[in-house]
Amino acid sequence: MPYIEFPEPEVGVLRRRPLIIEGLRNRVGMDVLIVDEDGRRAYETDAFTAYSCMPMLVVLPRTTEEVSKILKYCHENDVKVIPRGAGTSLCGGALPSEDAVVLCISKMNRVLEIDFANRFARVEAGITNLEITARVAVQGFFYAPDPSSQLACTLAGNLAMNSGGAHCLKYGVTTHNVLAVKMVLMDGTIVEIGGTTLDRGGYDLLSFVIGSEGQLGVITEATVKIIRSAEAARPMLIGFRSPEAAGSCVAAIIAAGIIPVAIEYMDRAATEVCEAFAGAGYPLDAEALLIVEVEGSENEIGVLLGRIAEIAARFDPKTVSISSNAEQSARIWAGRKAAFGAIGRISDYLCMDGVIPLSQLPHALTRISQICAEHGLRVANIFHAGDGNLHPLVLYDANSPDEADRAEIAGAAILRLCVELGGCLTGEHGVGIEKRELMATQFTATDLDVQMRIKSVFDPGWRLNPAKVFPLDASESLRAGLAARAPEAA
Amino acid sequence: MIAKLASQKRDMEVVGHGALRNAGRTSKADVVLSTSGLKGVTLYEPTEIVMSARAGTAVYEIEAILAARGQMLAFEPVDLGPATGAPGGALSIGGVFATNFSGSRRIAAGSARDNFLGVRAVNGRGELFKSGGRVMKNVTGLDVARGLTGSWGTLAVMTEVTFKVAPLPQTMVTLAYTGLPDDLGIEALTVAMGTPLEVSGAVHLPKNCASRLRQAKLKGIDEPVTLLRLENFSAAVDERKEKLKAALKVYGHPIELDAEQTWSLWSEFRALSVMPFSNETSLWRISALPTKAAEIVFAIQKFMDVVAFYDWAGALIWLEVPVAADAGAADVRRAVSVRGGHATLIRAQPEVRASVDVFEPLKPEIERLTRGIKSAFDPDGLLNRGRMYANI
Q1: High-pLDDT (> 90) share of chain A, %
Q2: CA–CA gap between residue B359 and residue B367 (Å, rounded)
């Protein structure tokens, strides 16, 4: 795929590799380093697998102090650092460069404190998303954001990307569920941002940090909110004859004052594949399928699902079926959560992540189909309907370079469409390298300058995960070291 | 206009309708820049639970438009005006996000910041920029919009804000437990928050503050009051109320307030009418851990007479102290800092607010970042200089 460019590696740094290995070994010990090629290969790509690059070196620190030593050394020796969690980024957020050290946080995965009375948990950032919930579930609590990759992805990655999930319609995304972070700046300074209380004092630095894609610092610990789980939750399936009917139904549910905990949408292509994979009981004759989940007591759930069924009836659904037991509910969600994997078994795909205002849904789906058809490609649509977060999966054959190119072009066209319709390029996957050059379609040069200046405050030398998020030409002078002249922290 | 003033390096005081002018540090400036002319709702999509409005739009106008469609601002913005001697009802939507002062429903619906989606603003360089947007999920680039919340106009002047709205609950009820000392009252709130009943308001008022309540059913009460609000559709509220009563059985038998009574009662916290303006007292707002909140107030009480109440299930303390040269800052900050949390001086004589730290003093490495951020947005320090911290 020729469309994503990379800056030339710094030859001087490559030449100094033995010295850098030596320097880091002296500071943190050899057992933190992965030097050999086979070992490094595991870190050459993330879940945006179309691109890969062997990093110069991988480090797996065990403590915040080790992270600080590593960053300080890299800062003093002008070495780039690529922070990494579990490597599940779908946008190349953890893609290495040849002249960079990959700093992987996955060994820092302990729970440090759980405080049920004050409803927070303090954890190391390498813990997996699902493990946090597993550790608090005994008391009936959970950690709310639930990206599909939650079994594997780390909290560090969630913090970097401000991850969402299927249930954020009610519970919000990562930035709504984090109270504080301990973070190491590129110069090795350890900072604690936020606290254990609900409000933070001073500027809301945490808002800048969450979703900054590893550009501002390396988060080693976080304090997250834990929430008491609902008594019960139950999904229902509604199959429609058209995407328009499904979209109108979502709007009508919200207009009726009901905010379900999740509203998921799948088109026919996606439904068929997921049903074949998971046997979830999805109807196969519907053009558009909604999974609507509500929470509460059994009585409340009954009332709410009944009201939603009444609303759905106005849109002439083909099928309405309410999950009758926990096992069926689990299967319904298993099908949805396995969707990306299931589709991956039949085809390579690019997973897009644009967001649109819900009212634009029918128009957007029509245009997406047209765009893919124009490029001779098929598409399967899965998305979080409650918040307009689309995941069109553009199917292609990775063995055909031509098809891969066309997929990338079609994907970019879809994202531009989302911006045109009043939405944005990415709802939860992040920009990474994938959408970097598209940023100018959503932001003016000034908008981007405002963001890049914030990066320069935290990382004046632009050594942390550089050449991502911001268009290369926009960030070129900063990456080239002119940052020293930019406004700097006093 | 800001670009022109910025090019002349003129210091600007940023205000809306003046609801917040008596709060925060005092800012001396050449020019008062008011957003009060920037009025009107620019986008409202009830089915997408989203609204945009120009920054100077009055909150009460926005709430009236929302109510007509059965919706609301879920985070219940608090109007500091009456408590600080400024006019009530002058709060602008820009001021809500500039201060991020959220009301009682914050424990269920998140803060103003949490419900903030997008902004258009002008920074101290005179540059117009945008961040975020009108959709609920957006991770495109840095979250500058949310980063501006709580910055008190020191980084940029918001011109248009976009935020999430929510359906009005079909009905609501309040359970009022009486006679509980602070620690037990907050314990009851904590127990309630540990249930799956989605309590949407959790306040404890010690006796000397409860006596200031005006709601007819509680007026003149001579005991501490512990309040829990439930909201939902009718059948759910009935069911949850019984479950909550069962969970809190050991705390006694509550007085019940119906939907109308509940509405008027919780409006009192939005206007802070239990902390009325007075020249004899100063007002603090303390962010605390619920399990430490009563202890903090107890510790401060050793040094002075206080009137306090606890919102957010004990995570927020409003504390009235007698007028003093430092508004009790030394004792308040000591009591808070050893127990985790931070304190903001809301109401005090202007000379006091000019001489003591109004906001919690910053740790050195955070101060370095704070100065860096200020400089990135407003390198010449023209916007609301000194409004939060001296020389920032």
Answers
A1: 84
A2: 12
